[in-house]
Amino acid sequence: MEWKGMVQNKIAVNRFYHNKSKYYLGTVQIIGLSGLLLSGATEAVISAHTIFTIEGTKPYIQLIDGSGNVTGDLMTLEQLVGFTMPGSSGTIQKEASDSTTNGGAVIVAPAGMKFSDVVTLVKADGVAYGIVSANAADSDGDANNNAGTIIGNMKATWYNDYSMVTDLDEELSDCGGPYKLIIEANNVSVETAYGDPKSNTYGSQAPITYTFHSSGFPKLCYIMTGSPTAFPTSGAPGENSKYPATGYNPDLWVRFTGFSIEKINAAGLAYPTTGFNKAKLMFIASGYSMEHSSIYRCTTTSPWIELSSRGGVGQNCVVSYNTVNKPTTPAVINLEYYDGTSWTQKDSYTIPAPTTWAVVKGLYAYADNALASAATAFPAASMCKDGTTTSVTTLAEANTYLFTRQELSNVPSATGTPVYNINEQLARDIDGTFAGEWGSLNETYYPGSGLATNDASFTWTGESFSDYQQVVYSHYAGYSYNYGLRSQLTTICR
């Protein structure tokens, strides 16, 4: 082979593999010089052998945004099962070592961050997808993104505590959580049409968990009463709850968790405004599942409040009213959080001094005669007045010592005829009524209160229905009814 021909061959090979490596270019030059001493056949064999054994770098996955711009390179499986998210000074990247599965710390989400602001390789909706938001790339330049293939699938799923998140445009709430992002990868590899090697196997990753909480975490979020009851309508004749569809005010009450402190504050309300001895409230903080029971506790200096807890040091702080007499000062409930080293106060809620206070006296007749006009004593009212059964002698005075139906519950009055309004049941609301604020007034829900233990029992009201009947109130469902004056019913005094 003439020198001219060898130089042309060298240039052609060099152009085709110009991106491989310095080592390769040096090799081509040696081949060219050696060709002066070799026959054309020998030179062709060596050149062919060299071309097919020289190795470059493996292809890899390259991130792209919605506009096709390159935003990053994923070189390892650890990076593959990571994500990007907003940070205080721009976008930050997390990888497998940052997961709580691998001992990483809880990640603090910046204020206003949505689930969708955390960018994973596939949509975080719990479905396994192939990887399409990326390209096949190669630092040698011999990858063709149109021909490159990313094989395998991944799955990413958000959870709010144990419930899967379905609306990824929601923000991470201070009262939600703990939030968990679980990512897994299955047999992921990348292949390119050209180059040697032409493939790179990332492999598989069993599900790993990243744990998040919001920037406002932790805080007091909900107040559940001893009675969790609410009564939506069921279609029975005459049934017409204050909130028929739910049995509660949806602007204030959250099913299963109680009154929302955020909603109470937004409405400018005080809660509760009513009370009685052994009334019970349960304060629920951020991330209230049982596994987090040891990181919360509540404290107070109020003399009329007794604190206890369920499931841990202070998780679900239970507040009991511990006084027969009406309190005259508010009670501040403090939330403390354990950060692994010490307890720190993080939030507080002020229980107002009650404006309306009930005193339970036991079972008594309303009058000593079947007719109010013929009665000489009103035992229930007398017990409220001075602890006797004979000191109140008129119906008008008797009615002043007991609560009216409108004060006890938020239901219509009894009718005295079918259907009696017995399906008009209590609704949960902050409306100044005992039933609205506390639910079913029952000893089962409020142990030690002296309230009725039988769901079918009633309490007297200060509302007369007729000369021989008084309006009464159901302890459980909160509806009103009418009873004969000599019945023995629970007496609740003002």
Describe this structure in words.
Residues 1-54 have low confidence and may be disordered. This protein has helices at residues 3-16, 22-34, 40-53, 77-80, 261-266, 379-386, 395-398, 405-408, 434-438; strands spanning 60-64, 70-74, 83-87, 90-94, 107-109, 129-130, 134-137, 149-160, 163-164, 179-191, 199-214, 220-225, 253-254, 258-260, 274-276, 280-285, 296-299, 305-308, 317-321, 331-338, 343-351, 356-364, 458-464, 469-474, 480-484, 489-493. The chain is elongated and about 110 Å long. The strands form seven sheets. Strands 5, 6, 8, 9, 10 and 11 form a six-stranded mixed β-sheet that branches. A six-stranded antiparallel β-sheet has the order 13-14-12-16-19-18. It has a three-stranded antiparallel β-sheet with strand order 2-1-7. The relative contact order is 0.09. It contains nine helices and 26 strands. With 494 residues, the protein is α+β, with helices and mostly antiparallel strands.
